[in-house]
Structure formats: structure tokens, C-alpha cells
Amino acid sequence: MKAYNVSPAAKIWVHAQGADKTDHIEAAKIKSWVCFDGVNPDNIDTYLALLQNMKDNKLLDYVLVSQDSVWYNVGDPKVGLYKSYTCIFTRLIPALKKNSFTEAEIDPIFTVNPKTAFTIKVRKLGNR
Fold first, then answer.
1. Which CATH number fits domain 2-72+79-118: 3.40.50.2020, 3.30.1780.10, 1.10.10.10, 3.20.20.140?
2. Residue 120 pLDDT grade (very low, low, confident, very high; cuts 50, 70, 90)
């Protein structure tokens, strides 16, 4: 990216939840977006720990969170197990609040960060 004068803020690392937490920190420190995908009712504690790690390192400003609701294999006549789209709101956010995340920490993850990350603009080195 550096060779092309592209800011790390132009990168959104999706499905980052499977990587080592130190890699999350390193990516966010250079201002790349770290996206934890796949929130579901069965893994709230995992995502809570991922977000706590980013909070502990003061890097919540570079975090995105999303939920995969269904898995589908092309040609499979049966659709995968569908999971409601409400899990982030009904499970994850309450878990964050229960674990000392404030509204000032939670709100940007789900409003400001996506707006900033997905705004169409040129992102060169030296700016976000």
C-alpha cells in the first residue's frame, strides 16, 4: 500500500476474528480497520473478549463488527441455519454494557466507525 501512497485506512480486514489478537492491535495501530464478523448467539463471549482487547489497547476507533446470519453453499438445496439479525442488539451490546463498556465506547463501533470506514473517498498516506 505504501508503494502506491495508499493509506492503511483504505483497508478493511474482514473476518479478523480468526487471527491472533496481537495482529488486530498491529493493524489498528497503523489505522487499518479490523472487522470482527460472524457474531451469533453462541459466540458472544468470544466477541466480547476481542472487543475488550481493542478497548484495553485504546483502539476501538478502528473496529467494525458484523453478523453473518446464514451460511449457504451454492448448489445445496437446503439453506443453512438461519440466525436472526438481532443478535448484536439483543446479545452483544447488552454484554458489552454488562462488562463496563460505556455508551461513548459502544456507539462509535456501530455508528461512527462504519460511516467513516465506508465513506467513499481517496485515502492517501497521511490522512484517514
1. 3.20.20.140
2. confident
